[in-house]
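Example 3.2
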Amino acid sequence: MHLVVKQFHGLHRTCFSRYSYLIDRCWWIRSFNFFKTVHAQLVKVGFNHHTFLGNRSIELYCHHGILDDALKVFDDIARKNCVSWNICLKGLFQFSHLDSARLVFDEMPVKDVVSWNSMISGYLSYGDTGNALGFFSKMQNAGVRPSQYTFSILMSSVSCACHGKQVHGSIIRSGMNLSNVVIGNSIISMYGRLGLLDYAFAVFLTMEEVDVISWNSLIWGCHRSGYGELALDQFCFMRTTRHSPDQFTISTVISVCCDMRDLRKGEQILNFSIKLGFFSNSIISSAAIDLFSKCNRLEAAERLFKELDQRDSALYDSMISSYARHGFGEAVMQLFALMMRENLRPTEFTFSSVLSSLSDFLPADQGVHLHSLVVKVGMESEAIVASSLVQMYSKVGLIKDAMKIFANLVEKDLVSWNTIIMGLTINGCVLKALDIFEELISKGPQPDRITLAGVLLACNNGNFVDEGMQIFSSMEKDYGIIPGEEHYSCIVNLLSRTGKLKEAMDVIEAMPCEPSFTIWGSVLRGSVVHGELELGERVAEKMTELEPNSSLPYSVLARAYEMRGRWENVIRVRKAMKDKSPNSPIGCSWIGIRNHFYTFKADQLVHHGGRDIYLALRLLFWQMKVENYI
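Structure, written as tokens:
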């Protein structure tokens, strides 16, 4: 390679295009060492000041991840043109130097549409919609006409209806041809993603010409917005036109049938895809596996997976998630091992399924091994994988490791915040969970109903009545979330446990729907603990009406009568429990030690190694007495 450089040495004064050829060669052979040699020659002969060659050198340094050298090349260029500045902007955003990019943009003598697009797309790539829309507004005020690419990146990133309508209005005001199929399809896709189906249909119906992508965008929008039947209707309408469905149409429609749990219609779509010759497509095969799995036909999903000659990561992901969905943790690990043996690179969805499915049963050391593999393949920063790791470590009690992963996340999505809040809560770190919630409010995304359920559970576990009531009362006003059963359950349990039974009953009476068995159970336990036996008896009666075969209300009442010496009532309740729920489920717990799980049933008198266990318990009780704990 160095011979090539020597070949052109001495000709640089008359033909710098040969150096351009050498830089092209650097792109082809992807050798950074060769490029450094070429750039050294450019500096030696003085061509490092040339605009065109300098711009191409900046691109190569950024491509190889060397920002400092790229900036030095930028400074060496004698006459920087707009392309020079734009390449520099792109590089700064690539390496997360947002403030520096803003300063460089402000220093630019001339800003073209590419400069503005670079700032808009740069901020959007980091989830900063506010700054992106701010630059879009400044762009228009500066008299720079947005391009089709400008609107494309905005429409693919807006997350609220108001911003979506603003972008659509800007397209109309700019005079851009709305009959353009690409623009129309982007608008339909945007409105479908935002759940504004009326607007999506309006754009679709006013388009002079539509194509397969137009239909796909409309069907996908209906599916995403939860209108499965409407999506299937559009698919039927599409078949009456001259546009033939492609593999993306078929996979979307199969996903609709998955969500509707409609196996019959799903199988009809599969038969149709076979006629079109699409069934060998991995996207459609993956959707078919999901369909069978979600419709409780796991055997059919397994059979389809085994019959496929060629399997890619998407197919493995679908089958692994199917096993995980049905609780077959061992099958998940076996299939994951097979995937690795076939040299298929796991995706973020692979790791998410494996970690999520095994976090309940997997010993902590095996979870650490999986974490090491995640780091090895470079996916630790992926939000979906990081959230699964946080969940896994939280469930095995390693909350410090979970916090470390969360803290190292550069981009935290709402799932990440929700997972760490719930993980801290179930590990007893309720004050830290509330601190994380405050941090989310100040600089994170808008909380959803899962976030608030986790925070209320933290208040419940920490007996923080005032904080819990304040959050519960402000849910709709501050966050636009109407309390659901999970939120009522947390707040009723909190009030009942702390003896505020009147307030708990007031909350129940204000519920827009009938209280569940779980909610009444919280009131029953609170009534018994705080001596409100009459209320407890009324609540127990309601519980037996909701679930006649449950033994919970009988056992709680029997215990309350027993503590008060009302033995006749104890006998009566226990007889009623035996008559009403003769086959009540037996509770159990388990522990994993060195890849072996030991199960302990509630009615089991002698457990695995029972004698040793009870000897250890006696020793613990003796130590507790010595230390005056009991």
